[in-house]
């Protein structure tokens, strides 16, 4: 009974409670330091859930990666906050005209920002599995062999910048207010925690719509082609449209399923992960796009497995 409450209650606390608090604070013009506090609370809640309802208990055990992941998180979260801080400067360069729906309720404006950012970031993410130079950078993220909350920000800062470019530039062009962007920044942090969480939580049929951990584990499969699925940050809508959605509720994952098959010895330290993409030995080949026929085959297989379970 307790476990069921935790499994169904945890996503509500994070997606509704934490995000809702951030939206209310941003709408009221509260100091941004309070939003940073909201993110810290989200991290604490995430870690607690991973220990109370773990998907894999051994994924809660550090593998000499906590400091590295904390550094990735600190640097990349700082980049997200920086992108929010420079919005007024970029808005001034854009000019006074704006297409942003400022007359809408604040929460609806945040939803618009999520939809736009989700599309832009997903496109960059898909490209990162297609083009070799982008895959070199993105491989840092795919080198993990356990999924837990901090994995979401375990990215090369250059790749993090590319993803932010894809998500933020359209928003700036539309004229997003800084307050909405601040709320979006918290929602991104919460989403990354949820998407890579080791908590065995439940969202029911929404697992086919929201880009959460149950679906995202398929994205971290280590063999070329297998992980070219479920690219979305907030939703799986674009994956459904692109034919890159994959899910099988009977599938269980262990560390042997994760990582990069072509480079199982990918450097694990933070300094080496920063420089490896720029070295000749840092290439491990782009995962490459799957033929659409293969995508359809996967969808059929997943649907059949779902009906059997």
Automatic annotation (TrEMBL):
Biased composition, class Polar residues, residue ranges: 297-309
Q: Which GO terms describe its cellular component?
A: membrane
GO: which molecular function terms?
iron ion binding; oxidoreductase activity
Using the UniProt annotation, give all residue ranges assigned to the region (Disordered): 281-309
In what residue span(s) does the Fatty acid hydroxylase domain sit? 111-244
Provide the transmembrane region boundaries. 12-28, 34-53, 74-94, 106-127, 164-194
Coiled-coil residues are: none
Identify the InterPro entries for this entry: Fatty_acid_hydroxylase, Sterol_Desaturase_Related
Q: Which GO terms describe its biological process?
A: lipid biosynthetic process
Which cell locations does it reside in? Membrane
Record keywords: Membrane, Transmembrane, Transmembrane helix
A Pfam family name for this chain? FA_hydroxylase
**Name of the protein this chain belongs to:** Sterol desaturase/sphingolipid hydroxylase (Fatty acid hydroxylase superfamily)
- Which classification does the entry list for the species? Bacteria, Bacillati, Actinomycetota, Actinomycetes, Mycobacteriales
């Amino acid at each position: 009974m307790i476990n069921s409450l935790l499994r169904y209650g945890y996503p509500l606390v994070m997606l509704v409670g934490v995000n809702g608090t951030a939206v209310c604070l941003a709408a009221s013009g509260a100091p941004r330091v309070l939003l940073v506090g909201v993110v810290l609370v989200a991290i604490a809640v995430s870690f607690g859930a991973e220990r109370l309802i773990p998907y894999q208990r051994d994924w809660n055990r550090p593998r000499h990666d906590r400091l590295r992941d904390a550094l990735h998180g600190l640097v990349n979260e700082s980049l997200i906050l920086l992108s929010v801080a420079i919005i007024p400067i970029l808005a001034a360069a854009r000019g006074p005209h704006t297409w942003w729906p400022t007359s809408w309720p604040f929460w609806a404006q945040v939803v618009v920002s999520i939809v736009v950012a989700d599309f832009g970031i997903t496109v960059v993410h898909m490209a990162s599995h297609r083009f070799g130079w982008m895959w070199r950078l993105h491989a840092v993220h795919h080198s993990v062999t356990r999924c837990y909350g901090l994995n979401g920000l375990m990215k090369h800062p250059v790749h993090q910048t590319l993803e932010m470019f894809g998500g933020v530039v359209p928003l700036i062009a539309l004229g997003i207010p800084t307050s909405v962007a601040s709320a979006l920044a918290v929602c991104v942090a919460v989403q990354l925690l949820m998407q890579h969480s080791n908590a065995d939580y439940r969202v029911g049929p929404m697992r086919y719509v929201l880009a959460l951990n149950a679906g995202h584990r398929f994205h971290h499969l280590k063999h070329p082609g297998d992980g070219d699925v479920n690219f979305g940050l907030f939703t799986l809508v674009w994956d459904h449209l692109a034919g890159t959605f994959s899910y099988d509720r009977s599938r269980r994952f262990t560390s042997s399923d994760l990582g990069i098959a072509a480079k199982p010895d990918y450097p694990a330290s933070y300094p080496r992960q920063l420089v490896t993409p720029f070295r000749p030995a840092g290439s491990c080949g782009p995962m490459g796009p799957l033929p659409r026929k293969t995508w359809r085959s996967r969808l059929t297989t997943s649907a059949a497995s779902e009906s059997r379970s």
